[in-house]
Design goal:
The complex is a heterodimer of chains A (235) and B (331).
Chain A: H1 3-9, E1 14-16, H2 24-31, E2 36-38, H3 47-51, H4 54-60, H5 64-86, E3 93-96, E4 98-100, E5 103-107, H6 112-119, E6 123-124, E7 134-138, H7 139-146, E8 151-153, H8 161-167, H9 175-178, E9 182-184, H10 196-200, H11 205-216, E10 230-231
Parallel strand pairs in A: 1-2, 3-6, 3-8, 8-9
Antiparallel strand pairs in A: 4-5, 5-7, 9-10
Helix pairs in contact in A: 4-5, 5-11
Chain B: H1 2-16, H2 24-31, H3 39-73, H4 86-98, H5 100-104, H6 109-113, H7 115-139, H8 143-166, H9 170-181, H10 189-208, H11 210-216, H12 220-225, H13 230-252, H14 258-269, H15 275-297, H16 308-330
Helix pairs in contact in B: 1-3, 1-15, 2-3, 3-10, 3-13, 3-14, 3-15, 4-7, 4-8, 4-9, 4-13, 7-8, 7-13, 10-13, 14-15, 15-16
The chains are: A alpha/beta (235), B mainly alpha (331).
Chain lengths: 235, 331
């Protein structure tokens, strides 16, 4: 961050982000008389908790009432989706993530993705692992465990089976690849090619949960059209 | 002979140890063509561990040969692909491709993600730095200065990479950083055959210059008086080193210390300076060391793995320190 340019812009407030108590750069800005607020949404442990940070930003723009009703809708729809998912008669096994070089990165047991998969009434194969971020595991251990998983949710940046196969031929050996049960968040792209999922997901947990339920228990949401999470293209 | 047997033993050990616990009997069954008790084991052994082992052998022996050639050419025990900045050159090539593409234009993006594109960039990078070091070497006769200049080239390229990294988006940076960790397990048979063909090509070229290399050990003037075509020998050595280091670095990342440490280890075991014996010995020792490093990196029975580069450095660093202490004895 360029402090001079920042001071020149004369903002009324700075929304900061810090990983620990070392906030030297922000201390400098505060000395210049610009208040700094820290955004801690990334510390939240549940998708709903993260969406609730809408309220934090609402206060800054004096839009509390509107935001409260927006959040209440999100919360209501999310909890309704959980109830719907509970009606499922099966509990499919789930594989997630993708390979980079020879390391398979997949969401850890306490991550958002693991929480979504739990709320969608599925059996995420790494649900019991520790940690909030991601796991970096060896290919062979993921292959041994996930080879027969029913579904593969969030397969990274690829949007077709062909692309997936070209990226790494190991992928084709998974059951979910053979039965074409791979879903990705990469279909919806913004104007500059960024994934909409990364931009919008924090404030739309109810849609993501429904997307996942639609993928793994399609009979529960017959009318629903998924927005973020879609099956890979066939060609 | 003995080294060859040892290599076979370590190939078997490498194939039988990994995150997934596969009994030795099943490994042998798979290798001899019959089906093991679990289908997934067959895939893990034949399509994951076997290519990885072959890659380890090619990488280990290729880097070690490069190291030996550098040490002979510069007549300095501390020379090696890393110290002379050649690996840094390869890194710079890759960094320019992976990180630079996003800064300058979008037309090369497809190339940046393909292994072949990375391989070409790394080879060009290492050849460029190598020729720069050679140009300097022609003027500066003191080999110690050449090594220092090589290190300076290394710092210089590292600085350019830092600047590129600073301005790059997180994804690209991650891609580059993971590349620098090194990896042996992501090559398919296609890529391994490219690596293998280039490796054989270099070995073929190498055979033609074994004799001149032996006379180089006694000094350049002596070599000339024996009728050695110095320029040709030097250029061939450089081209071989550049291609080997460049291609290996491209496919498996900048793997440290093997090139420097293995020739010395080999010379401790086999007390000769005849390249006819030394070259194959160095190649096999390099392959064995790389297989051991990879076996350790896989952290057998655990789900996690270590970056291969960390493991080779753990081996390499103590050896280099020991070398510096023993340097008097070597001279």
């Amino acid at each position: 961050m360029n402090t001079e340019v920042l001071l020149d812009l004369q903002p009324e407030i700075i929304i900061g982000f810090a990983m620990n108590s070392n906030t030297k750069m922000f201390d400098n800005i505060e000395k210049a008389g610009i208040p700094v607020m820290f955004n801690g949404d990334w510390l939240e442990e549940t998708p709903l908790g993260r969406a609730e940070w809408l309220k934090f930003f609402a206060i800054l723009f004096e839009k509390e009432t509107v935001t409260d009703s927006i959040f209440n809708t999100i919360e209501k729809e999310y909890n309704e989706a959980i109830t719907i998912a509970k009606k499922a008669t099966t509990k499919p096994t789930i594989l997630s993530g993708s390979i980079f070089k020879d390391i398979w990165n997949l969401p850890a047991g306490d991550s958002f993705m693991a929480q979504y998969l739990k709320d969608a009434n599925t059996d995420y194969l790494w649900a019991n692992s520790q940690g909030k971020g991601s796991l970096s595991l060896s290919f062979e251990s993921v292959f041994e465990k996930g080879q027969h998983a029913d579904f593969w949710i969030d397969s990274g940046i690829y949007i077709s089976y062909k692309e997936l196969e070209n990226a790494n031929k190991h992928y084709t050996k998974f059951e979910a690849f053979k039965t074409k049960n791979i879903y990705s968040f990469a279909h919806q792209k913004g104007e500059n090619g960024g994934l909409l999922y990364y931009e919008l997901a924090p404030t739309q947990p109810h849609i993501i949960l429904k997307d996942i339920i639609k993928a793994v228990h399609p009979e529960l949401l017959p009318e629903y059209e998924p927005f973020f999470l879609k099956q890979l293209n066939n060609n | 002979m003995f080294l060859g047997m040892l290599l076979l033993v370590f190939i078997l050990i490498n194939l039988s140890l990994g995150s997934v616990d596969i009994p030795f009997k099943s490994v042998i069954q798979t290798l001899t063509g019959s089906n093991p008790s679990k289908e997934s084991w067959q895939y893990i052994i034949l399509d994951y561990r076997l290519p990885k082992a072959v890659t380890a052998i090619l990488v280990g022996s290729g880097l070690s040969i490069s190291g030996l050639l550098m040490q002979t050419l510069f007549r300095n025990p501390l020379a090696g692909p890393f110290v002379l900045g050649i690996s840094s050159g390869a890194s710079l090539g890759v960094a320019l491709l992976v990180l630079g593409v996003s800064l300058f234009s979008g037309s090369l993006t497809g190339l940046a993600f393909s292994n072949i594109g990375i391989a070409i960039a790394a080879s060009i990078g290492s050849l460029l730095v190598l020729s720069a070091v050679m140009l300097v070497a022609r003027r500066v006769k003191n080999t110690m200065s050449i090594l220092i200049i090589g290190l300076m080239f290394g710092s210089f390229t590292a600085a350019i990479i830092s600047v590129l990294a600073y301005f790059s988006p997180a994804e690209k940076l991650q891609q580059y950083v993971f590349w620098t960790f090194g990896s042996l397990g992501n090559l398919g048979w296609n890529e391994i055959s490219i690596l293998g063909i280039l490796f054989l090509l270099c070995v073929g070229l190498l055979i033609t210059i074994i004799k001149p290399l032996n006379s180089l050990l006694l000094g350049e003037n002596y070599a000339i008086s024996l009728g050695v075509n110095l320029k040709r020998t030097r250029n061939l050595t450089l081209i071989i080193t550049g291609i080997l280091t460049g291609v290996i670095t491209a496919f498996s990342g900048p793997i440290a210390f093997i090139g420097l440490a293995v020739p010395h280890l080999t010379k401790l075991i086999i007390k000769t300076s005849n390249h006819r014996i030394l070259l194959p010995a160095v190649a096999i020792t390099g392959a064995i060391l790389m297989l051991i490093s990879d076996t350790i990196a896989q952290l057998p029975t655990s789900e996690y793995t270590l970056p291969i580069n960390a493991v080779t450095s753990l081996f390499g660093a103590p050896i280099v320190i020991w070398l510096l202490i023993k340097k008097r004895a070597l001279n």
